[in-house]
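Contributing new complexes? Match this layout with nickel (II) ion.
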Amino acid sequence: MILPIHTYGNAVLRKHAEPITKEYPNIKDLISNMLETMHYADGVGLAAPQVGFAVRLFVIDLEALREDNLELADFKIAMINPEMLEMSDDSAVAEEGCLSIPGIHETVERSLSIKIKYLDSDFVEHVDVFQDFKARVIQHEYDHLEGHLFTDKVSPLRRQMIKSKLNNILKGKTSTSYKIKSA
Ligand code: NI
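Output block (do not edit by hand):
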């Protein structure tokens, strides 16, 4: 089922998301709906708060990048209750966007390497190290669970320049190819 994506200005995007217990109902359905919603919107990552659930879960699927990078294409993952264990001091800047902030792309500095603990969709615990683009996408999605958005991280000058665009999204004045829920 395709869910509406909550856009900039919705309070759910600013909440510190809650951990998910094993008793949480229909977690596999939520994961499958999030993947379907993300694919429909041409995204590569989606966090549960973006579809209105303030819980610690995100999905990533880099299949859409197959033409650019074969090695990334097989990366498809759901992370429940992720916990960032290490973030490298080495960092890089690259452009990011977000399905909740349509039409805005800005360069963001991210750690090049991270170590993260998480549960998979069967609640099996993993500890993995990710680098480069995978590390970037995970950091972006992880931020959503903390109530942070990539636009928080841009320079004060750039933030000033995107202010009116953000205000338009806030007022629901934005056009997307996917279903949204504005504030
Ligand atoms: Ni995002």
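Reviewers usually confirm one structural detail per submission. For this one: The radius of gyration is 16 Å.
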